[in-house]
Amino acid sequence: MESKLYSKAEVIDFINAGRVMLLSGSEKALKDLPQGKWIAGSTPYFVDSVGVMDEDKIFVNDFTLIAKNAKVAAYDAKNIQDIALNGYDNGITLVSIPIDTDVYFTFANNSMRYVDIFKNPVVGFIAATKLDEYGKAKPYTASGIDGKLNSEDAVVLYVELPDYLSARTEIENFDTIDEETPEIIFPKDGFVQSDCLIDGKPGNIADYFENVVKPKLGGYTQMITSQNGALINRDTKIVDTKAGTVTFFSPIYAGDKYHLVKNGKDYAKMFNDSLSAKRSDVVACFSCVSYFFGGNFTGKSIVKNGNYAFGEIAYQLLNKTIVTLEIDRVG
User: Is the pLDDT of residue 327 over 80?
Assistant: First the structure.
């Protein structure tokens, strides 16, 4: 079944037919769905051939045809560390986590140390709200366990693949490192940062953002680092000059070498060029509202459908990346 937006009535029929699905939509669209083998997270931003904001329909990623088995689970901050332990030997772990919750912060700060985290692809998105309602309205997840909306728990869909298939996830960033900006290294992990080394000299990240970055760029920007060759963005959330802190939308890791971002020039073209070049079967595509709005995606044609949220998941919490889940035939 094609990954795209469907009416709520159609999705209810899919659930009742036993389809294995990852869903996304608004609070209104996801409310009161039947029990079944599905999970969901809230977002109203999608590419459905073209970029759209839709609060009535539900975006469906359907895994029924490749699912040998499937099961649904929910986790809170106390047991999210078990997320990778309960999957299949050969499968996919699909997840949605509500933003700014205990389970969100716990997963973001610790996921790379979870037992068996790399056994299967762990992919998904952060459940959030409309951009202008962020911080005012609640994000929601839901699952086929009980069909109820939840603003606190992560939801997980485990999909077992047949032996002749294998899954992998790819992370791509359409921004690059601005090599003309200083190298910044932080001494601790976490969302909130203060003291750091700026080109080897002691400094404060809030002071640097306020007195160097803002006058030059007219505002704040993302930071970027290379992790084993993958470019990872850290979106800036709050700059508190009085406290001398900067809060990011995903955690900084101690010792990583950060620079300011050099933004891509045409995100829509970059998306299309990248997605058109893929030879594997891309069964799911998650990306960031920073691309959606920065590339002015509304009404623009994009070659692969997907949802856009306040964070992507590929083993860890990411910002401003495109995450694809790809299926290969073994042998």
Answer: yes
For residue 164, give the nearest of 43, 66, 300 by alpha carbon: 66
Tokens representing residue 73 in the block: 């689970």
Amino acid at 287: S
Q: What type of residue is 247? A: T
Work out the widest C-alpha separation in the chain, in whole angstroms: 61
What whole-number distance in Å separates Cα of residue 118 and Cα of residue 120?
A: 5
Q: How confident is the model at residue 112 (pLDDT cuts 50, 70, 90)?
A: very high
The string of pLDDT tens digits covering residues 123-145 is: 999 999 999 999 899 999 999 99
The whole-angstrom separation of Cα 76 and Cα 103 is 5
How much is the pLDDT for 217? Answer: 87
Beta bridge partners of 46: 52, 307
Q: What does R_g of the chain's alpha carbons equal in angstroms? A: 19
CA 183/CA 258 separation, integer angstroms: 6
Q: Where are the domains of the chain?
A: 4-172+267-329, 176-262
Judged against a pLDDT cut of 90, whether residue 97 lies above it is answered with yes
What are the CB-based long-range contacts (under 8 Å, 24+) for 270-274?
Answer: 270/174, 271/174, 271/295, 271/302, 271/303, 271/304, 271/322, 272/301, 272/302, 272/303, 274/172, 274/174, 274/322
Question: Whose CA is closest to 205, among 253, 154, 239?
Answer: 239
Q: Using DSSP, state whether 208 is helix, strand or coil.
A: helix
The predicted-structure confidence for 190-231, as pLDDT tens digits, reads as follows 999 999 999 999 999 999 999 999 998 888 889 999 987 889
Q: Region 275-303: what's the mean pLDDT?
A: 89
Query: Strand ranges (DSSP E) for 13-104?
Result: 21-25, 38-42, 45-48, 50-53, 58-62, 69-75, 91-98
